[in-house]
Target: 50S ribosomal protein L17
Amino acid sequence: MRHQRKTVKLGRKEGHRKSLLSNLAVSLIEHNRIKTTLAKAKALRPLAENWLHRQEEHHSCAPHGQGCAPPG
Model:
């Protein structure tokens, strides 16, 4: 049984699955919208959310939302 298995296989081997999800993520970021199957969208969602969360952390200048001074 597949209890506690996080990887959605999508009927592909590991390399093909990684490439597929990577390409979907890039398309989502570039175009803000993609047309795909529900299974692929559900597999992509945690990856895209993780990427966006890391970008938000990277761009914050100070903790607790204090903001940062503009350059110049």
